[in-house]
Amino acid sequence: MAEMTMIEAIRTALARALEDDDDVIVMGEDVAIDGGVFRATDGLVQRFGAARVRDTPLSETAIAGVAIGAAAHGLRPVAEIQFMGFLYPAIDQLANHAARLRNRTRGRLGCPMVLRAPFGGGIKAPEHHSESTEAMLAHIPGLRVVIPSAPAKAYGLLLAAIRDPDPVVFLEPKRLYRSVSEDVADDGAALALDTAFVLREGSDVTLVTWGAMVTETLQAATSLAAEGLSAEVIDLGTLKPYDRAAIRASVARTGRCVIVHEAPLTAGFGAEIAADLAEHRLTSLLAPIRRVAGYDTVMPYLRLEAHYMPSTARILDAVRSVMEFA
Amino acid sequence: MASTQAIFPTAVAACLDAAGHPQGKLPDFARDRGTLVAMYSDMVRTRTFDAKAIALQRTGRLGTYASCLGQEAIGVGVAHAMRGDDVLLPAFRDHGAQLVRGVTLEEMFLFWGGDERGNDFAGPRRDFPVCIPVASQLPQAAGVALAMVHKGEPGVAVALAGDGATSKGDFYEALNIVGAWHLPAVFVINNNQWAISMHRSHQTACDTLAQKAVAAGLPGERIDGNDVIAVRDAVRRALAHARAGKGGTLIECLSYRLGDHTTADDASRYREDEDVRPHWKAEPLVRLRSHLTKAHGWSKDEEDALLRGCQSQVNTAAERYLAMTPEPPRAMLDSLFATLPEDLLPAARELDDG
Ligand SMILES: Cc1ncc(C[n+]2csc(CCOP(=O)(O)OP(=O)(O)O)c2C)c(N)n1
Ligand SMILES: [Mg+2]
């Protein structure tokens, strides 16, 4: 066990995967000598060599396309897109190819690749560096979207993503890269994909979230406890395919649900969760489902960024409104 | 404005002229009758498949189909130059290449008939299926090449694309990374002069498409794409170059799309019959047949037997395709992931229950 930040846990998982499997390669812009702009790949080129830790040209379509071709021909590429805002040129490759290759060849060619990208706001980054567009990716059939919320989860989920025979987009909440640390065992153990984590058990209300918003959501749960309210906190972990059963089971017990995400409200992934509960747990619900989300606007520059990000106070307001409903 | 012609060569390599006369000494392989007959037979088989596919589409028994009429020499020449351990990444007009690689006629009918099983090739297991999003197969070819290098395999990734594809960012990004990483990848452009209704002359201000290789630090060549011997020879050399660790090549094959863009297209909206007619004189089958007849005594009997053979193979394959029942509906889920996620079980049950 060693205490690690999320960035260290990611680096440790990458090193473990490179160590365990010769078919794993790491590629992306500035991932080699520079160790990645967030240092996720720091030291890997020195350990595993430039053939396996590859600086790519500045070329997002090629990064995704090369990863697909290499994956289909037997490698397990872990490609990095430097920031989620620069992922769009890769979406053609992801949606039209990575997500479909196994299906359209009826299993003949697989695509065991991982595309990593830092995402989300809260670090006062320049324009285009703070968006959360996970719902766009989660809408693509055939693609897994995985989002860790803490160092140990980042380690275990990234190993699972790399070992998975299908393509995974691994979105790293960069606000959490260095803000928290915890004990992580570099034991090579993967965590289960498609499985939500119950971060805190509770009986009055279910709070569903993922990624960096786990922080504010847990803070809200702590405040609520002081008020005598017991909130269950669920971290989705995998957005697609997501663990509907865990959410349905929790809401069946609590009867109330607040969904928290940083991405804009409309057509965000919270809408999917709310719709699923409306379809399957209507009779359990004691109050309307509430979503606490980013506003339906362009991510503001850093001076207004804090006003955009869902705050603990907004989560508390939403929880109180569902508690007061009936 | 200075023409790029002044800077980049525009010569087009050919082995046979349009009448089938050798242009100088032919490459070694092209002096062997059996080799020439095999290539000719594959072009005839491709054209027979093409005609049948159009007929099936016109009678509602196949989906939208992209004819390769007049461009058979490109796919056939490319695939004849390739080895089994190479990997083909075709576009949607490369039926000749797929057939030579060992994709069956039945699989090809299945694909164009709207059945994913057509991509589950029994033969070339590592070859990619047809790529519809223009030029997007090219970065993937670079990835296949990277995997080959990584695994120490001697293969080369060979991707085909159209003239329109050379305007896409994917094309440039792929060429660039092949150059930067010295990858064993060969890109063959079927310059059939058209991208649906857009003539090549409007696609780019470049005089040639081959010159686009220069920007990526790669060799670029222009070949008469209606000359199967020239195509095969150019690809053979490019493959040897790549196998020797010297990196990729861009080959521009000049041809002409004699048919509509697809069965959903009506080319009379944007070009005249008079524009097309002269190109019939340069088409690839006539040319090789003339040469075979003059230089190798290819007889009328052999020609008739070949046509009959291709017709019967194609008809048999078409009958088998038509007789095949569609997959059960839940097949649309079964291969989405290696293991069906629990999340999809309700959908699977619903499809099972019909
Ligand atoms: C990215 C993309 N844009 C548009 C289309 C629609 N489309 C299909 S084929 C085609 C023209 C392609 O021209 P070219 O690359 O010259 O190939 P050809 O059809 O002549 O073989 C277009 C625009 C597509 N399939 N993919
Ligand atoms: Mg064209």
TrEMBL record, chain A:
InterPro entries: THDP-binding, Transketo_C/PFOR_II, Transketolase-like_Pyr-bd, Transketolase_C. Residues 4-179 form the Transketolase-like pyrimidine-binding domain. Its cofactor is thiamine diphosphate. Pfam families: Transket_pyr, Transketolase_C. Keywords: Oxidoreductase, Thiamine pyrophosphate. SUPFAM superfamilies: Thiamin diphosphate-binding fold (THDP-binding), TK C-terminal domain-like. CDD domains: TPP_PYR_E1-PDHc-beta_like (cd07036). GO terms for molecular function: oxidoreductase activity. This is Alpha-ketoacid dehydrogenase subunit beta. The lineage of its organism: Bacteria, Pseudomonadati, Pseudomonadota, Alphaproteobacteria, Rhodobacterales.
UniProtKB/TrEMBL annotation, chain B:
GO terms for biological process: branched-chain amino acid catabolic process. Residues 43-320 form the Dehydrogenase E1 component domain. Its cofactor is thiamine diphosphate. Pfam families: E1_dh (PF00676). One of its GO terms (molecular function) is pyruvate dehydrogenase (acetyl-transferring) activity. The pyruvate dehydrogenase complex catalyzes the overall conversion of pyruvate to acetyl-CoA and CO(2). It contains multiple copies of three enzymatic components: pyruvate dehydrogenase (E1), dihydrolipoamide acetyltransferase (E2) and lipoamide dehydrogenase (E3). This is Pyruvate dehydrogenase E1 component subunit alpha.
